[in-house]
């Protein structure tokens, strides 16, 4: 716990951390409420719920060429706080669209809001990498996962409660307000120029299409030349399919199989169960990450989740399903904390944006394709159980692949780092 307190004593990290928490909390309330609003209004059309999720993933494919380059060439702090306030304005526009009730306009605003926020994560990751020491990355990842577990524990319930009491309009207003607070916290954090602009100062006018394309290719070359990073990214593509399935399958199995009459209430309990598992798993994973090699945590977590995801598809009651989902949640932090702590150590600070500019679109492409298939095929061709099997199969494939390649690559990477750390004594 001493290590956690030392990281949190960093005032710059603390402000960015609180900004991230505030923004996430607002988004969780707003998006959870919106999902249930869609399900309530279009009960006989589950495709609308899948399309809503698509509006959060597809925009990556529209802006992927510019996201990473912007984070590496422009002021990362300015990108982060600008994204939040533009997203807040988009949420206010969403209020008007919901009042009108025209779904194409609603989906269009969700698309634009999501497209803007795609610029936030690479910039924020770059800022975090700059203000932390190398041995603090895993600790910070543990703190982030711990907070995420709190959100999972209470966020779904909070979103539904806000939806029940304040309605969809109140939930969207909370979302907008939280984004504005997050934007203010980021803007008020004093950061040095080398953290904000590790590649030097550039203006947005300098980023013509030629420079953007050259930087995008440079990110691709950087990934190809880093075998460990490339191996991890292969797995991330499968994680995109996983994210697509996870974004809808627990709601679908409650609404269309296990608890059709009270699925909202059961969703609250499921959120508590899932959040409890994530919370316990986060604490355990944070401690294990200090003693166990990170690639072993990733492999163990992936295979563990695979088993219980497939098992969850056979649950005949909500209680049994919640037990399986608790064990899924228990293992997920092993993956998230290990990857979150490992990635900043193998990516150069000046390349973080361009690498993320490749990772996010690959994951979102897989996620969008998955959601597109679910939208078209569910429930006529694809059963709810089949979605669970698909997600479980992806985890199995990734687990086997990582088991074969990560131990050797991690060893090679560690040896290289040791050689680079040895500084020759000066002659004479």
Keywords:
mainly alpha, 428 residues, Growth Hormone, Chain: A, globular
Can you tell me about this structure?
The chain contains 16 helices and no strands. With 428 residues, the protein is mainly alpha-helical. The chain has one domain: MFS general substrate transporter like domains (Growth Hormone, Chain: A), CATH 1.20.1250. Helix 11 packs parallel to helix 15. The protein is globular, with a radius of gyration of 21 Å. The C terminus is likely disordered.
- H-E order: HHHHHHHHHHHHHHHH
Number of distinct helices = 16
The CA-CA distance between the termini, in Å, is 46 Å
Largest sheet: none
Write down the overall mean pLDDT.
Answer: 81
Structural class: mainly alpha
Q: CATH superfamily, please?
A: MFS general substrate transporter like domains
Q: Indicate the CATH topology.
A: Growth Hormone, Chain: A
Q: What is this entry, summarized?
A:
By secondary structure, the protein is mainly α. It has a single domain (about 10-195, about 210-420), classed as MFS general substrate transporter like domains (Growth Hormone, Chain: A).
Annotate the secondary structure layout.
Elements (H helix, E strand, L loop, with lengths): L1 H7 L2 H31 L5 H11 L1 H15 L2 H25 L2 H15 L2 H12 L5 H51 L5 H4 L12 H17 L1 H32 L4 H26 L5 H19 L5 H29 L5 H26 L6 H38 L7
């Amino acid at each position: 716990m001493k290590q956690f307190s030392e990281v949190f004593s960093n005032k710059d990290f603390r402000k960015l951390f609180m900004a991230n928490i505030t923004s996430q909390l607002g988004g969780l309330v707003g998006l959870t409420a919106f999902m249930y609003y869609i399900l309530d209004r279009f009960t006989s059309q589950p495709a609308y719920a899948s399309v809503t999720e698509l509006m959060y993933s597809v925009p990556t494919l529209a802006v992927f060429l510019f996201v990473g380059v912007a984070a590496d060439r422009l002021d990362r702090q300015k990108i982060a706080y600008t994204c939040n306030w533009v997203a807040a304005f988009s949420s206010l526009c969403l209020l008007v669209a919901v009042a009108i009730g025209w779904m194409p306009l609603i989906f269009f605003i969700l698309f634009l809001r999501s497209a803007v926020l795609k610029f936030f994560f690479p910039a924020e990751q770059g800022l975090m990498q700059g203000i932390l020491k190398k041995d603090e990355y895993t600790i910070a990842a543990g703190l982030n996962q711990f907070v995420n577990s709190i959100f999972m524990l209470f966020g779904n319930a909070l979103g539904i409660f806000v939806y029940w009491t304040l309605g969809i309009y109140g939930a969207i207003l909370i979302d907008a307000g939280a984004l504005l607070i997050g934007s203010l916290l980021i803007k008020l954090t004093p950061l040095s120029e080398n953290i904000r602009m590790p590649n030097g100062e550039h203006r947005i006018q300098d980023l013509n299409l030629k420079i953007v394309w050259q930087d995008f290719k440079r990110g691709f070359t950087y990934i190809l030349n880093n075998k460990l990073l490339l191996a991890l990214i292969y797995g991330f593509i499968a994680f995109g399919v996983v994210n697509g399935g996870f974004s809808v399958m627990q709601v679908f199995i409650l609404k269309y199989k296990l608890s059709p009459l009270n699925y909202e209430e059961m969703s609250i309990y499921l959120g508590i169960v899932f959040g409890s598992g994530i919370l316990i798993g986060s604490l355990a994973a944070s401690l294990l990450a200090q003693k166990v090699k990170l690639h072993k945590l990733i492999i163990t977590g992936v295979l563990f989740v695979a088993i219980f995801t497939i098992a969850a598809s056979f649950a005949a009651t909500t209680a049994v399903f919640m037990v399986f989902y608790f064990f899924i949640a228990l293992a997920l932090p092993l993956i998230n904390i290990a990857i979150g702590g490992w990635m900043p150590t193998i990516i150069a600070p000046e390349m973080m944006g361009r690498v993320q500019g490749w990772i996010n679109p690959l994951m979102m492409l897989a996620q969008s394709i998955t959601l597109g298939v679910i939208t078209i095929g569910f429930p006529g061709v694809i059963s709810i159980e089949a979605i669970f099997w698909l997600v479980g199969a992806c985890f199995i494939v990734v687990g086997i692949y990582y088991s074969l390649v990560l131990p050797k690559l991690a060893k090679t990477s560690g040896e290289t780092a040791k050689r680079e750390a040895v500084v020759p004594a000066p002659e004479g």
